[in-house]
Design brief:
Layout: E1 2-10, E2 16-24, E3 53-56, H1 58-63, H2 65-69, E4 76-79, H3 80-89, H4 91-102, E5 108-111, H5 129-147, E6 153-156, H6 160-168, E7 172-174, H7 176-181, H8 189-192, H9 226-235, E8 239-245, E9 252-256, E10 263-267, H10 269-272, E11 280-285, E12 293-294, E13 332-333, E14 349-350, E15 360-367, E16 375-379, E17 393-399, E18 407-411, E19 420-428, E20 437-446, H11 450-460, H12 470-473, H13 485-488, E21 493-495, E22 502-505, E23 514-520, E24 526-533, H14 544-552, E25 556-557, E26 562-563, H15 568-574, E27 582-592, E28 598-609, E29 612-615, H16 616-624, H17 631-653, E30 663-667, E31 674-679, H18 684-707, E32 713-716, H19 726-734, H20 744-753, H21 762-772, E33 778-781, H22 810-822, H23 835-868, E34 873-883, E35 886-891, E36 896-901, E37 928-931, E38 936-939, E39 945-947, E40 951-960, E41 966-972
Parallel strand pairs: 3-4, 3-6, 4-5, 6-7, 21-28, 22-29
Antiparallel strand pairs: 1-2, 8-9, 8-11, 9-10, 11-15, 12-14, 13-36, 16-17, 16-19, 17-18, 19-20, 23-24, 24-27, 25-26, 27-28, 30-31, 32-33, 34-35, 34-40, 35-36, 37-38, 38-39, 40-41
Length: about 1000
């Protein structure tokens, strides 16, 4: 049966056009249950022995996805009208719903009600699209009741009117909360149900409801409607941007605004007006006389939100504590501080400082960025010691990430969950509530357990740890795999097995995606080769594996674990360029002179056979030992000589040589706990490999862009705005050396000159501080910006891309396909020319790359906490920031940076042995005065001066703060009184 559907839509040119589509109605659409004799057995997913079948409406699918994912919920019928609406409204929930449909254990069946003759309905002129869809769901549920009369059908909906109409049709309909309470075998299911926007749990069908409690004081302003926000942004009276909440001070946020030209400061939760980190918000600037700046104070451990912020005022609800929960900021690993984040930002805001910033308040939420998978943390202990009551309890949940507020949830499991890490989702945040409301999702494990805390950091950084689906594994060739005769005879693939190729990687590396060679040529020049795993030979566009790899975007490396972008048979065997086996590669071959002048370059698919898989230490040993005259060792020395020239040339162009405090662990083979931690040693062999990879990436970028000017995936590093250099410039001025930030070349020259002959570590510390001033490098499509904006500031390169790691980065996969098309090996797919698709792809690559970086750093921080858990260590430190009430110090040996407070807590630590003074006093912060210009704390009597870059000694230990957040505690000790044997030095 053929129906014609007519509707109107707006084109990209803002024209309104009428569209007519043919809509086919059929009788042979299966019900998915073996109880239906007319259903196709191959299509059946629902169980014949189920107690009942559930039918859910769209809002349940959107807001109760955690409930649907619970093991107790199965045999669910998803109407196609529901699936389609979810796809349009929330891509993340849609993907989770699709996974439920694809899971054999869950028995979720999609019924194509919109194409079945008996269940398709036309829209009534007087009903909304939502009402029409609800009616379609009821009609389809009634059809199932007729089709399988022996099986109870239950419609789950939190819409009271929808339930009423269903009951009038003789359909059993329930709220999600009521259904959850009806399952005695899964009591935790009631905790998982989301609350509605009014902050209350879903109403029961029989009229019962959770008590709304006493009326509470309004804390926040109502958000303005989108219509007025859009108009105000267009007029310039409001400003739009993404909210970034300070990691070190959750009551301070920033919104980047192109219209203002710099970040807008939001001081306090009231100014944030229920916006969370990552939300796209509309901000109203305050009058200039109300602008404030960062305080000179470090935010203290367990310091409460300032009383001036109304969000800190108590509410009248009996289940809520008398004041806002206290949150603190302890020491962290230095690598956890990303470019653009500084310890200046630990502090609250104040109007007393001379350096005021544009300050505003959020007046509307343009797009929420609440995590559909929830937030990890633990329950806040009941400080008032109230006795447990019957039924659900209102409790506060404390996220492990300080950027997020406490969340109020209801649970019947408070005692059981007291020592557990949980996942909680946010459902709503009302104007009269100091906290958002949410619901329990799942338990991760016991607090402090290493595996549990690893799951926490993976969740916090949104790392996909799901097993690869059967469809993805089906794309991988079976093992054992080897190069075939067809590969060797392929006219588009060159046989390079005779070349002296080797790989150089960290110890234990299994996913080897790059190898190198160099050899002399008869004419006196050299041949340099970079050989990259030919992943795209196996990873084809538009396959299940390609879709999954594009979504994951990158491999995530933790201290003891790797979360792969591609299945392990590919990463560790088929594509890995292991020694002694033939492998497929994509090779870049240069003819180069001994002074590193490139004569020619060519690109080819190849077959290689690596002669050795060397570690950096092994390669360095071959380079250093002139007695070794074998072919590999001699060629490594040649390659290293070329790398030195290339590095010097880059430096002369203005490339920056920055530094980061990377650490390495010695791991116990049985317990897998860290036995020791120290700075990672970077050898010249590391730099040699880096130069070869940089050369390959630049060369490929130039070649691909010359063929595809508007659709090449590139990587750029934008020039940091001058304000980001302020911490470095202030430190340099106080330490009496000069930093010129007018260009990358002048900055590089300044960093080279920042030396203290008596202090070997000083220059590296300055370079670490400079690294913190950088912007994030990012992927982008060449058609999005003009060529001058392609520039990579850190590398001083006009063009750059990623080509050398396709096993672990999807960006490199894209570039491999572009290069193959550029040299005529295949045609460029049509969708690769789609600018919108490339923009979305680059956005996901940037997000996933940063998430993977942060997860890796969090893993290092976790293992450092484990290392210090049962020990105290005294170590050398350097002062990197001085504030009115304390210091920020960096501990080079362990890569730790954190605050040292000159407060009551710190009065047991002597100040003798640091700075210019020599006193055995035990002062608090009130005994010191801050000199901002000199970056110095001076005692009132002038006997003690603490300046930036001063050496100190700190005692490192682990303490537990709010919400079971373990953190490092740094305390100053008297360095002069310590035997050198007790001091862990650089």
């Amino acid at each position: 049966m053929l129906q014609h559907k007519k509707f109107v839509k707006k084109t990209k040119q803002n024209k309104i056009v009428q569209v007519s589509r043919e809509h086919y109605l059929r009788d042979d659409i299966w019900s998915g249950t073996p109880l239906d004799p007319e259903s196709d057995a191959a299509a059946n997913k629902l169980s014949a022995t189920a107690k009942h079948y559930l039918v859910v409406d769209t809002n349940v699918a959107l807001s109760q996805i955690d409930f649907l994912e619970h093991a107790a919920v199965d045999d669910v019928i998803i109407m196609s009208v529901v699936l389609e609406e979810v796809r349009h409204r929330n891509a993340s929930v849609y993907q989770r719903l699709r996974r439920l449909v694809e899971s054999p254990a869950k028995r979720f069946f999609v019924f194509v009600n919109e194409h079945h003759r008996e269940t398709y309905i036309k829209a009534d002129v007087n009903e909304s699209p939502n009402d029409r869809n609800d009616r379609a769901i009821r009609i389809a549920a009634a059809w199932y009741m007729r089709r399988v009369p022996g099986m109870p059908i239950i419609v789950l909906t939190n819409d009271a009117e929808n339930r009423r109409k269903a009951l009038e049709m003789g359909i059993n309909a329930m709220s999600v909360q009521a259904y959850a309470r009806s399952l005695p075998d899964a009591p935790e299911l009631a905790d998982i149900t989301a609350v509605e926007s009014n902050g209350q749990a879903a109403m029961d069908i029989d009229g019962g409801a959770v008590s709304k409690g006493k009326k509470r004081k309004r804390i926040y302003e109502d958000h303005r409607p989108m219509s007025s926000i859009a108009a105000a942004i267009k007029q310039g009276t409001l400003h739009q941007g993404s909210l970034r909440v300070n990691r070190f001070n959750p009551y301070e946020g920033y919104v980047g605004s192109e219209s203002v030209g710099q970040d807008i400061l939001l001081a306090g939760r009231t100014a944030m007006n229920r916006a969370l980190d990552g939300d796209i918000v509309a901000v109203e600037l305050l009058p200039e006389e109300q602008w404030v700046s960062a305080s000179a104070q470090l935010r203290k451990h367990d310091e409460a939100e300032p009383n001036a912020d109304e969000a800190s005022q108590p509410t009248s609800e009996e289940e809520e504590d008398a004041d806002m929960a206290r949150e603190g900021g302890g020491a962290s690993l230095a690598p956890q501080v990303a470019p653009g984040e500084h310890y200046d930002d630990i502090s609250s805001s104040s109007s007393s400082s001379k350096d005021k910033r544009p300050t505003g308040r959020v007046v509307g939420i343009i797009r929420r960025n609440w995590r559909t998978r929830g937030y990890s943390g633990s329950l806040q202990p009941d400080r008032l010691g109230r006795p447990a009551k019957q039924g659900p309890s209102n409790v506060l949940f404390c996220p492990v990430e300080r950027r997020y507020p406490f969340i109020r949830i209801q649970t019947r499991q408070a005692d059981t969950l007291a020592d557990k890490r949980l996942v909680v989702a946010i459902d709503s945040w009302e104007v009269d509530s100091a906290y958002p409301s949410g619901h329990y999702v799942r338990t991760l494990g016991t607090i402090g357990d290493k595996d549990t805390e690893t799951e926490v950091l993976l969740l916090e950084n949104d790392i996909n740890t799901s097993p690869f689906s059967p469809a993805v594994h089906a794309c991988v060739p079976p093992l054992p795999w080897s190069v075939t005769e067809a590969d060797l005879n392929d006219p588009n693939r060159e046989d390079l097995r005779h070349l002296p190729i080797c790989s150089v990687d960290p110890p234990g590396c299994k996913d080897i995606d790059d190898a190198l060679h160099m050899r002399p040529l008869p004419n006196g020049t050299l041949e340099l080769g970079v050989h990259i795993a030919d992943v795209t030979h196996f990873l084809h566009p538009a396959t299940a594996m390609d879709t999954e790899a594009a979504s994951r975007a990158t491999t995530t490396y933790l201290v003891q674990r790797r979360i792969d972008m591609l299945p392990k048979p590919l990463t560790e065997d088929i594509c890995s360029l292991r020694a002694g086996v033939e492998r497929l590669a994509f090779s870049v071959l240069w003819e180069i002179t001994k002074d590193a002048r490139i004569v020619s370059v060519r690109f080819t698919k190849s077959v290689i056979k690596s002669r050795a898989a060397l570690t950096y230490a092994e390669a360095q040993s071959r380079i250093d030992d002139e007695r070794l005259q074998d072919e590999l060792s001699v060629n490594l020395r040649r390659m290293n000589a070329i790398a030195r020239v290339l590095r010097r040339q880059r430096s002369e162009r203005g490339a920056l040589q920055l530094a980061s405090p990377e650490v390495k662990f010695e791991i116990d083979t049985e317990t897998h706990d860290p036995l020791d931690v120290g700075m990672y040693q970077v050898r010249e062999a590391n730099q040699m490999v880096e130069e070869m990879m940089l050369l390959a990436n630049v060369t490929v970028a130039e070649h691909v862009l010359s063929h595809f000017a508007t659709c090449t995936l590139l990587r750029r590093h934008q020039v940091p705005p001058p304000r980001q250099f302020e911490p470095l410039l202030k430190a340099a001025s106080a330490a009496h050396f000069s930093i010129d930030i007018s260009s990358s070349k002048t900055l590089a020259e300044s960093l080279d000159l920042a030396q203290r002959p008596e202090d070997a570590y000083f220059n590296k510390l300055v370079r670490i501080m400079a690294t913190r001033c950088m912007t994030q490098a990012a992927y982008f499509g060449s058609g999005e910006v003009s060529p001058p904006e392609y520039y990579h500031y850190g590398l001083a390169a006009p063009l750059y891309t990623h080509f050398t790691s396709p096993i672990r980065r999807y960006a490199d996969v894209v570039v491999h396909r572009l290069l193959a098309a550029a040299i005529g090996l295949n045609r460029l797919p049509e969708d690769a020319k789609d600018g919108d698709r490339l923009h979305a792809l680059a956005g996901n690559l940037n997000l996933r790359h940063r998430n993977a970086q942060m997860a890796g750093r969090a893993s290092v921080e976790l293992h450092t906490l484990i290392f210090f858990k049962d020990r105290e260590v005294i170590a050398d430190a350097r002062v990197t920031r001085v504030r009115a009430n304390g210091l920020v110090v960096f501990v080079p040996k362990y890569g730790i940076e954190g605050p040292v407070y000159l407060t009551e807590k710190a009065k047991t630590a002597s100040m003798q042995g640091i700075g210019a003074g020599n006193t055995a006093a035990k002062p608090g912060s009130e005994d010191f005065q801050l000199d901002e210009d000199q970056q110095m704390l001076a005692s009132k009597d002038g006997k003690v001066q603490i300046k930036i870059f001063d050496k100190a000694a700190v005692r490192i230990s682990v303490v537990e703060g709010t919400g079971h957040r373990r953190q490092l505690l740094l305390q100053l000790v008297d360095r002069a009184l310590l035997p050198q044997s007790e001091l862990a030095s650089v």
